[in-house]
Amino acid sequence: MKKKYIVLVLLLTGITLSCKDSDSKKMIDGKVAPVIAVKQRDTVIQNSFVADIQAKKNIEIRSRASGIMEQIFVNEGQFVRKGQRLFKTNDAELRMELNKVAASLKQADADIRIAQIEVSQLQALHTKDFVATNELDLAKAKLASARAKRAYVNAELNAVQQKISFTNIVAPFDGVIDVIPFKEGSLIENGTLLTTLSQLNEVYAYFSIPENMYFELLAHDKMGKHQKIELILPNQDHYEYAGTLKTAEGEIDPENGSIRYKVLFPNPKQLIKHGTSGKLVISEKEENALIIPQKSTFSIQDKTYVFVVDKSLKVKMTNIEIASTLSDSYIVSKGLKIGDKIVLEGTQSLRDGDVIKIKSNNKILTSR
Which of 80, 94, 142, 352 could form a disulfide with 84 if both were Cys (CB 3.0 to 4.6 A apart)? Predict the structure, then answer.
């Protein structure tokens, strides 16, 4: 009986030691991972957009009368002032037509004068009953006809004068002349493109944002509350002037689901030309943001997760929502709070519920 009791005690002792050895081995075999605490801090969010840059005004200068290019007063790339003469086409034929119409106008004036005298004379005779009423009415009708003819001729005169004015092409505003495809002596047809004029003291940088971002900005009252808008030129230089956001288009493009905005940049040195491409960087200040490194996250079926570490060093897979992306970090909107501890890296080797050892300053910490 005493031997059986001794055997039983030894058996129970062996089982207890085995369990302790198992737990100890599990702790020893626990995966080592660095852990960080979630903190709040202020940051600046930068969003980049491809921009199409256009002059504030950019118009085509076209001829409004046919003729021979007589004179070109400007050069390609030249800055011109509003009203400055640019081109002159030949107007010899129009001048001849103007002389004919002017002569017709003088004849119409003479016809009116004759008709007026005739009406005046018949009016005096009609008062004395020497002339019938219908004869006076006929004279008045002739006078009205003469006046109508003069009005018609005068309209023709104005039309010819306007055509002559079209042979003098002037700048409608201050700007820079583009390519001039024709030379002096070239035959110009009505509507021919002579050059393009760009007003470059200010330029617009057009860009598009997805409709989901547009509504997100509206929902959080962030539309137009940016800190700074920068322009990156094609050579990667930062343009020296900041931009001002202007109104958007009135509708969302159904083809790509985006809405177009424009940013106004001053261009006093006229460095930026119409048609330049660039990149806009819009900076927005974010206060008290929860920021975590991107390498602490992993994705499963379009959802983002982190491993949250509890007091017993057990990890729990936790779904988070990302508000914004920084260069190597995420701003978290849901799923974490200040003080939470998360696994910094090595998440691919962990499973939900694993117990880890914390690597800190080259020391390994375990739960107690």
Answer: 80
pLDDT confidence of residue 283:
83
244 phi and psi, to 5 degrees? -120, 125
**Contact, 48 vs 280, CB < 8 A?**
yes
Residues 6+ apart with CB under 8 A from 334: 320, 321
* Residues in Cβ contact with 121 at an 8 Å cutoff, skipping those fewer than 6 apart: none
Cβ atoms of 224 and 245 within 8 Å: the answer is: yes
Structure tokens at 126: 């009609």
Segment 282-327, tens digit of pLDDT: 888 888 889 999 999 999 988 999 999 999 999 999 999 988 888 8
Using alpha carbons only, what angle is made at residue 121 by residues 102 and 151, rounded to the nearest 5 degrees? Answer: 25
pLDDT tens digit sequence for 65-95: 889 999 999 999 999 999 999 999 999 999 9
User: Rounded CA gap, 95 and 319, in Å?
Assistant: 83
Q: b/e for 303-341, b at 16 or more Cβ within 10 A?
A: ebbbbbbeeebebebeebeebbebeebbbbeebbeeebb
Q: Tokens at residue 299, please?
A: 């994705």
DSSP 223: T
Q: Write the DSSP assignment of 254-321 as a string of letters.
A: TTTTEEEEEEEEE-TT--SPTT-EEEEEEEEEEEEEEEEEGGG-EEETTEEEEEEE-TTSBEEEEEEE
User: Phi and psi for 83 in degrees, rounded to 5?
Assistant: 90, -10
Alpha carbon dihedral 95, 98, 102, 104, in 10-degree steps, equals: 130
Residues 6+ apart with CB under 8 A from 347: 296, 297, 298, 306, 307
What pLDDT does 12 receive? 43
> In the structure encoding, which two tokens stand for residue 354, read together?
């694993």
pTM: 0.63
Do residues 153 and 104 make contact, with C-beta atoms less than 8 angstroms apart? yes
- Of residues 155 and 9, more confidence is placed in 155
